[in-house]
């Protein structure tokens, strides 16, 4: 298993180019199951989760043709369509559940492994299932698999999600594209990966999706989608991670290929900690302060209300170095503080009370051997090791490889002493 060896403390200077968004690419790739015609997707990030989704599409029967650099893929339908998303693929990536809406809408049949829980929480899929049932999907759960079918075409309906869910919103938008008549989804997740990218991609292919209210999406079903080329947006969480890195390490960093408007909430929080930020159309120039200010009462919330849960761990590292006490409440996932025990091993003083972390500032991180637990927690450990005095070894970095494209190369280019040990 690969490890990172990081020697610190490091200062950051230079520029970094943001890769395509994993969380935008996954639903777009799943939605290609709706097509009879060829689809070309560009600006894919070269990360493990994308390989897993491509393997799932292959096992379902899609023909895959990558460009040399593997950033562009052409996907077309083969003669033999399968309907089974096996446990081996779903267990490594919960995003595989996004194939359910597409398969049921297009082929009226799907057998998908239940994802089960993961380290950050139970993560049920009840909202996906109950909403698809309203459109006419029938299902049973047998031996850990969802056996889903539909007698005829799905039928458009009005659905109000009882809780905002990124995945359920995506699955329903995808399914409703080929349903009969009008579907209205209320209380939707409106992350840019959905409201911008998934919507724009499907509409470019001839779908009729319209956002009629802040969290209301109307979809008029169409019979088929046409041949399409689409380029995936930049990765919001990678951008946020580099913004935190620059703030943390007294950095001077130019972040390219990301629209700053889509990460305004987090940029405002970083300004509060003392960062100087200048933005243009698709660039962020960020300079870290000499002294980081603390912030109390940050609560993670759905986009765009407050800090993204996927950036919570990275912000916690920053606040460990602040001049006073801060707190972060995690309101999206029930168990997303796996990084805390590891940050304590570097010297972090963090107390957990329920879903609230109280972070004492003025920590001087000292390098240590660390263990990655999940994707974003691993990114936080890399940031902490980067500013820690001495040497850190981060184990199990396969978690990071799921969602960050060549993070060590990008960090090395901006001055971080980081090495991958295979
Ligand atoms: C997506 C993102 C993930 C991010 C999360 C929240 C992808 C591939 N993943 O995950 O990076 O951390 O959004 O921004 O885009 N819930 C239920 N029942 C359901 C669905 C969700 O109870 O049927 C709960 C979840 O357990 C969680 C909350 O709702 O507590 C939000 O989850 P959701 O928005 O669905 O997250 P994902 O789509 O899994």
Word description of this protein:
The protein has 422 residues and is an alpha/beta fold. The chain is built from 14 helices and 24 strands. The strands form six sheets. Strands 22-23-1-24 form a four-stranded mixed β-sheet. The chain has a four-stranded mixed β-sheet with strand order 2-15-17-16. Strand 4 and strand 5 (73-77) form a beta hairpin. The protein is globular and about 60 Å long. It starts with a strand and ends with a strand. The chain binds uridine-diphosphate-N-acetylglucosamine. Residues 23, 26, 94-95, 121, 123-128, 163, 165-168, 189, 309-310, 332-333 line the site of uridine-diphosphate-N-acetylglucosamine (UD1).
Compact overview of the structure:
By secondary structure, this protein is of the alpha/beta class.
What's the total number of strands?
24
How far is it from the N-terminal to the C-terminal residue, by CA? Answer: 6 Å
Helical residue percent? 25-40%
Q: Which structural class matches the secondary elements?
A: alpha/beta
Strand order, main sheet: write it out.
Answer: 22-23-1-24
Give the ligands present.
uridine-diphosphate-N-acetylglucosamine
Low-confidence stretches: none
**Rg over CA atoms:** 21 Å
Alpha plus pi helix count: 14
């Amino acid at each position: 298993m690969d490890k990172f060896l990081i020697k610190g403390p490091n200062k950051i200077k230079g520029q970094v180019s943001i890769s395509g968004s994993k969380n935008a690419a996954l639903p777009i790739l799943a939605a290609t199951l709706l097509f009879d015609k060829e689809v070309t997707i560009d600006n894919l990030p070269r990360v493990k989760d994308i390989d897993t989704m491509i393997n799932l599409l292959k096992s379902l029967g899609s023909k895959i043709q990558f460009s040399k650099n593997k950033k562009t893929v052409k996907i077309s339908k083969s003669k033999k369509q399968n309907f089974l998303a096996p446990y081996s693929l779903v267990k490594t990536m919960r995003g595989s559940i996004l194939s359910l809406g597409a398969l049921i809408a297009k082929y009226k049949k799907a057998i998908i492994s239940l994802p089960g829980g993961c380290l950050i929480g139970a993560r049920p899929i009840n909202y996906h299932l109950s909403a698809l049932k309203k459109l006419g999907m029938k299902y049973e759960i047998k031996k850990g698999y969802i056996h889903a079918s539909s007698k005829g075409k799905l039928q458009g309906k009005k659905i109000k999600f009882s809780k905002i869910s990124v995945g359920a919103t995506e699955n329903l938008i995808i399914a409703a594209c080929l349903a009969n008549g009008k579907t209205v989804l209320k209380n939707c997740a409106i992350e840019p990966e959905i409201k911008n990218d998934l919507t724009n991609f499907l509409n470019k292919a001839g779908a009729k999706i319209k956002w009629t209210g802040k969290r209301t999406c109307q979809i008029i079903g169409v019979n088929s989608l046409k041949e399409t080329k689409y380029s995936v947006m930049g990765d919001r969480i990678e951008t946020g991670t580099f913004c935190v890195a620059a703030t943390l390490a007294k950095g001077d960093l130019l972040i390219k290929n990301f629209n700053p408007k889509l990460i305004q909430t987090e940029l405002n929080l970083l300004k509060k900690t003392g960062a100087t930020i200048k933005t243009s159309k698709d660039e962020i120039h960020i300079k870290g302060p000499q002294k980081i200010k603390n912030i109390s009462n940050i609560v993670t919330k759905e986009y765009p209300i407050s800090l993204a849960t996927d950036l919570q761990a990275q912000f916690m590292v920053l606040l460990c170095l602040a001049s006073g006490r801060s707190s972060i409440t995690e309101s999206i996932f029930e168990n997303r503080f796996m990084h805390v025990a590891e940050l304590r091993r570097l010297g972090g003083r963090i107390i957990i009370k329920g879903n609230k972390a109280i972070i004492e500032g003025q920590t001087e991180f000292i390098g240590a051997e660390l263990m990655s637990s999940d994707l974003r927690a691993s990114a936080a450990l890399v940031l902490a090791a980067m500013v820690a005095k001495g040497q850190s070894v981060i184990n199990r970095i396969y978690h990071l490889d799921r969602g960050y494209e060549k993070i060590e190369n990008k960090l090395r280019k901006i001055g971080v002493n980081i090495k991958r040990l295979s």
